[in-house]
Amino acid sequence: MFGKKGPKTETGADHVDVGKVLQEIAGVRAQLYATGAVDSEPEVLNQIERDVIAVKISPSEALARVRGVLAGRQDYH
C-alpha cells in the first residue's frame, strides 16, 4: 500500500475515475435490459456502484468487475 514515495495511486494508463465507471455501469445496464435476459446482474452492478462510490474498491477494480458481469452474461447466453 505505501511505498517509498507514499500511498499507491492509480496513474497514467491505469487511471480510471469514478465517472467513467458509472458511465460503464449505465451502458452495461442498457445492454442487459435491451436483451430482456436479466437475472442477478442488476444487483451485482448496484453493489459495484455502491462500493466504488463508498471507496471500498478502486475505480479500476470496479471497471474490471463491471466488464466481468457483461462478459459472464455473454458467455452464458
Question: What does this protein look like?
Answer:
- It is a single chain.
- With 77 residues, the protein is mostly helical.
- It has a domain at 39-77.
- Helix content is 64%, strand content 5%.
- It has three helices and two strands, in the order E-E-H-H-H.
- The chain has helices at 18-35, 41-53, 59-76, and strands at residues 2-3, 6-7.
- A two-stranded antiparallel sheet has the order 1-2.
- The termini are far apart.
Radius of gyration, in angstroms, nearest whole number:
14 Å
Largest sheet composition? 2 strands, antiparallel
Spatial arrangement of strands, main beta sheet: 1-2
Could you state the oligomeric state of the chains shown? single chain
Range of helix content: 55-70%
Task: Report the end-to-end length measured between terminal Cα atoms.
Answer: 39 Å
- Share of residues in strands: 5-15%
Compute the number of helices: 3
User: Based on helices, strands and strand pairing, what is the structural class?
Assistant: mainly alpha
Topology as a string of helices (H) and strands (E): EEHHH
Kindly state the number of beta strands.
Answer: 2
Shape descriptor: elongated
Contiguous runs where pLDDT drops below 50 for at least 5 residues: 1-13
Average pLDDT number? 81
